[in-house]
Amino acid sequence: MTSASLSDSEQRHLLEVARQAVRAAAETGRRQEPPAGAPDRLREKRAAFVSLHKRGELRGCIGSTMARLPLDQAVADAAYSAAMQDPRFDPVTVDELPDIDVEISVLSPLAEIRPEEIVVGRHGLMISSDFARGLLLPQVAESRGWSAERFLEETCRKAGLPGDAWRHGAKIQAFTAAVFGEHSPGS
């Protein structure tokens, strides 16, 4: 599934599911189920991440690499978790809601990749070794102007591994993502 394969109305639906989940989390501290009646394609099991930004700065980002839930449910769960459970941030408050912008990344399945095959801006990466695992979405490397090598190093660091672990046996997997978001905070 690419962003082109998600219609504008499907993208809007998922953004509204995420927005409602973030709002419910901030207002009640509880998870909110997506509304019934989602298009069939949004009921397919897919992996997704939800990133929250506040005035352009990351405010939370959580998701799953495994397609275990219907996409609308995966988005609702990731939005709640990004708002309330990202260990890097305090939970989102009601006062912050007007300044929060939602971005959704719908992931392809993970596949092993060789370092020379990585295309910055196209691939996201997951690097793992033993129990350590780190993931960076495709838009991270592109927005920071990283080379493929720097992307590998930063993904290793995200896993808590030395930056060169990718050269020494760490498993490298890649994925693509359909990425879309709200165009104005609070919409």
Total domain count = 2
* The CATH H-level homologous superfamily of the largest domain: Hypothetical protein ph0010, domain 1
Quaternary structure annotation: single chain
Low-confidence stretches: none
* Radius of gyration based on Cα positions: 16 Å
Termini separation comes to 25 Å
Question: What portion of residues belong to β-strands?
Answer: 15-25%
Order of helices and strands: HEEHEEEEHHEE
- The structure class reads alpha+beta
Helix content: 25-40%
Q: Choose one word for the global shape.
A: globular
Largest sheet: 4 strands, antiparallel
Could you please describe the fold and organization of this structure?
With 187 residues, the protein is α+β, with helices and mostly antiparallel strands. It has two domains: 3-107, Glycoprotein, Type 4 Pilin, CATH 3.30.700; 111-175, Dna Ligase, domain 1, CATH 3.30.1490.150. The protein contains four helices and eight strands, in the order αββαββββααββ. It has helices spanning 8-28, 71-84, 138-144, 148-158; strands at residues 47-54, 57-63, 100-107, 111-112, 124-129, 132-136, 171-175, 177-181. The strands form two sheets. A four-stranded antiparallel sheet has the order 2-1-3-8, with helices on one face. Strand 5 (124-129) and strand 6 form a beta hairpin. 36% of the residues are buried.
